Fold these 2 entries.
Entry 1:
Amino acid sequence: MAQNQEEYRVSVTGTKLVINDYIYVRARPGENGKFYWNCRKTRHRECTARAITRQIRDEIRVIKGPREFAHSHPPDHEKAEAETVLNSLRRTAEEHPEIPPAQVLRSEINDVDPGVLARLPDRLYHCGYCE
Ligand SMILES: [Zn+2]
């Protein structure tokens, strides 16, 4: 087990990567299961942090992360949580098409902190998840 896996909290949600509450967007795939990521704020030139991960079967390993490429801003826990909740909603909806989307939303949102809920994008409420 690589040691940095124990120090980093890592999750991949679609085209986004979250490491210790920093959110990255996928830049490009590399060789041998590697992926390159940019901090979500690089688009606005607020931050130049990058990350490199490697996927081995289901496991995502951080090769370069916040320690190697420092961010110009603090991590955003609530935004990162919102990404995770959104991804979990999408996955539940995909895996259980028989469950009405409104019910998926309600069951997920029961456990969600109100601060996190406030960070979910509005479009969630204006698409297939609407009642
Ligand atoms: Zn950053």
Note: The chain has a mean pLDDT of 82.
Entry 2:
Amino acid sequence: MPLKITQSLNSCFNFQSLTQEQVDCYQTQGYLFLSQILTTKGLALFREQCLEAWDAEKRGNDDETSWLKKSLLINIHHQSSIVRDYYFWGPLVDVTEQLIGPNIKGVTSQLTFKMRGNTNPFAWHQDNGYGELNPYNAITTLTAMDDADEKNGCLWLIPKSHLEGQIPAGFDKKARSERKPIELQVDESRAIPMPMKAGDSLIFNCWMLHKSDGNYSSDRDRRILFLRYADADAVEVYNNNQPRLGRLLLGQTQFEQVRAFEQELE
Ligand SMILES: O=C(O)CCC(=O)C(=O)O
């Protein structure tokens, strides 16, 4: 990686190496909390670029019928250079390597914004329910651009629920094309809220059960960057096991189309 890029990455992101204790904790609990992974400068750039993209696409769509459309902006790394740096070359790539292995691709980037007054909940689901990938070690990461707590719609999860494996969610072709949300019925007695400070990141296993409630704050948005990483050879089970396209970030892949995917993005 050119020195110029490395230097500017260091001013925006706090690179870190997981301890063995953190790796073990991720395997047993299914999640890890990474404090202040964005620097003050990185957070400011995130807010500036992501909000500009959000406003251009979403502002004025307040009567949007689909709550998913109201809350998601996909492929934000196509629009924001700081998100691209973070997604492709940031600290989460190294963290993911420690948890998945040497061959890594980026498979999803999106904003999940719950602005003040957006009281739509995001029901219990596993991220592998929305897009089943094999092998089953994909990692979801949420990076907070605002402080998030129970009032403004922070995430909730059920520690160790990843140990239960893939739960059939009925997210078939029709549900997918209609972007119908998954709503799993779960025993919530072990659920815990995951309050975050702006600049923190929460990462979890593709089978982790999680949800968020609405944003009931009158003066605080809840803006999150959602990134997902997977083994470079991961395939889409719901799509006849076709290779999932995503930029190769580390190591190798057997799939030529993955090797070529988004290589032009810098
Ligand atoms: O943004 C949220 O509140 C939840 C997002 C989420 O769980 C997801 O996109 O899988």
Note: The first helix runs from residue 3 to 12.
